[in-house]
Amino acid sequence: MSLNTDVRPLGLSEHEKGVILVVAATLAWSASGIYSRLLSIDAWTTIAWRSLFGGLFLLIPSFFLEGGLSRKQWASIFHPSGIAMIACQTFCQACFIGALYTTSVANVAVIYATAPFIAALLGWVLLRERVARRTMMAGGACLLGVIIIVASSIGGGTGFGDLLALGMTASFALIIVIPRISPGVPSLPPTIVSAFLTLAIFSPFGSVGSIDTYNWVVLAAFGATNFSIALVLFLAGARRMPPAEAALIGTMEIVLTPFWVWLFFAEQPPLATLLGGAVIVAAVVWHTAGDLRSSRRAPAKG
């Protein structure tokens, strides 16, 4: 009796692992609206101390991932890619919290949906990566969903807050691409440094005395889940797939973030948000399912 060597071994491919990790990260990130509604302190204070908790919680996985607490691992903060990660992370986190405080949660989520197109452009310019036709089609569908939502919510948030959300989106697209430019450079040390750098920069503008026990707990949870856990999951997943695809899966956040706010705070999304969100989710599911089918059909090597 002979074994069929063409059958793929049981277990997930690297691409499939990447999909699962990025989806899990997106779920964690989608809780940002909940935390922003629970907090009762100013934006400067939130930016600073959420980052502190995020950095502290990131120290835990740094003991076990990417070589542990070795000199080689932490030397990455002086590598050009490490410096770029620190700058992008610091800028991204500040813009993110600032946007949540100065425009609607829905607007932040909608503007973030442009990340696939920015990441695709950066991936093409910096890495010369070809963007698959299916990815462009799904991205076009996502753009249609965004147009549906934006067309009905013009004037729903301040211009400054929307600008901050755009800055967050552009810097996040860079965070997606940088690990693929230098795959051997650890990502956690620069991210941890950026968290403490954010604290150092913004804490002088905040008021630590205004934080009571309730807000300390919310800030700690915000930093642990929405910053640390989500980021570790996403960076691990993004290394296993093209930047545009990772960002495209992340667009599910545009639907989930307002949904959680509606579920827990009874903030009913407008009809256009539901329609546009349905288009985006359908595009993401179609694109991801197609990739998974293709990877499963791929013949085993060797």
Layout of strands and helices, then pairs:
Elements: H1 14-29, H2 32-38, H3 43-62, H4 71-74, H5 80-102, H6 105-112, H7 115-127, H8 133-153, H9 159-181, H10 188-202, H11 213-238, H12 243-250, H13 253-265, H14 271-297
Helix pairs in contact: 1-11, 2-13, 3-5, 3-10, 3-11, 5-9, 5-10, 6-9, 6-13, 7-9, 7-12, 8-14
Task: List the keywords.
74% helix; 302 residues; globular; 14 helices; mainly alpha
Q: Total domains, how many?
A: 1
Amount of beta strand: under 5%
Helix share of residues? over 70%
Secondary structure tally: strands? 0
Envelope shape? globular
Largest sheet: none
Gap from first CA to last CA: 21 Å
> Helix and strand string, N-terminal first?
HHHHHHHHHHHHHH
Which class best fits the helix and strand makeup?
mainly alpha
Mean pLDDT: 80
Rounded Rg: 20 Å
How many helices? The count is 14
Name the poorly predicted regions: 1-10
Overview of the molecule:
There is one protein chain. The protein is globular. α7 runs parallel beside α9 (159-181) and α7 (115-127) runs antiparallel to α12 (243-250). The longest helix is centred in the C-terminal third of the chain and has 27 residues, at 271-297. It is built from 14 helices and no strands. The chain is mainly alpha-helical and 302 residues long. The protein has helices at 14-29, 32-38, 43-62, 71-74, 80-102, 105-112, 115-127, 133-153, 159-181, 188-202, 213-238, 243-250, 253-265, 271-297. It has one domain (14-293).
